[in-house]
Write a structure and sequence with these properties.
Blueprint lengths: L2 H15 L35 E2 L6 H5 L8 E2 L2 E2 L9 H5 L4 E4 L2 E4 L16 H18 L13 H5 L1
Antiparallel strand pairs: 1-4, 2-3, 4-5
Length: about 160
Amino acid sequence: MNGNRLQDLLTRHEAFWQRQGDTPLMSVSAHKPLEERGGIPLADGTRSADGRLITPELLDPARFYGGAPIQDVVRGDFIASQGPPGMCWTEAAYGCPVRIVTGGPWAEPCVGDWRAERYLEPDQEWISKLNEFVDFLVDRAAGHHPITQPLFSGPMDVML
């Protein structure tokens, strides 16, 4: 990776946040929903079908990222990063079933009476699987780009 490109990008970002930039920061890419890609890859080499209940043992980080090349850290006007796939990690860790719906993960409701006081213990299998994805990505990146966290849902997402 060219260090000058990264430095130029950082300078443009600083100017943007100081409201001194000449152009907006943009990154353009094609969106390809999981449904078009045949669902998520499973540990056994197959792909998920709609309605499939997803459990930690069905997921393997190597299947998600395969032999795809590491991308350049500069992607458009932004610094590229990679994170675990959006698998409804929070909901799964707190007991919500995760199913494949229209090609992607969707958490089902798991709280019957939201007014009832309850203490939830996180499911360590889901936490361990998330850590496995993060460790895999850190090793794969080898310091070439940042690893980010997945989108974590809030309490209302888990309750509804």
